[in-house]
Design goal:
The protein is an alpha+beta fold. The chain contains one helix and four strands, in the order H-E-E-E-E. A hairpin with a 5-residue loop joins strand 3 and strand 4. It is elongated, with a radius of gyration of 15 Å.
Length: 87
């Protein structure tokens, strides 16, 4: 089984391969599934296209995007990337 540091490293590397030119990539959350089979890694980055919507909060120019990467705890293989909705 890979440890938390290895899971985060694999998720970070995978994000860089899938989404090019990431800005301000940050680790947000790490969780091991109840059955110890998967790591749930949440990473965030800044989307640098300016927000031009009239609904955008005042003074906010960029959006922080959150992604959850699921990493197999045995092999370290990244299985999926999902949009992580904040509640």
């Amino acid at each position: 089984m890979i440890d938390v540091k290895e899971a985060v490293a694999r998720a970070t590397q995978y994000m860089g391969e899938v989404f090019h030119d990431l800005h301000d990539l940050q680790l947000e959350e790490v969780e091991l599934s109840d059955d110890d089979a998967q790591w749930y890694i949440t990473l965030s980055y800044l989307r640098l296209e300016p927000l031009e919507s009239p609904l955008a909060p005042l003074g906010r120019k960029y959006e922080r995007v959150y992604k959850q990467i699921i990493v197999d705890a045995e092999t370290g293989e990244c299985q999926s990337i999902k949009i992580r909705q904040l509640q």
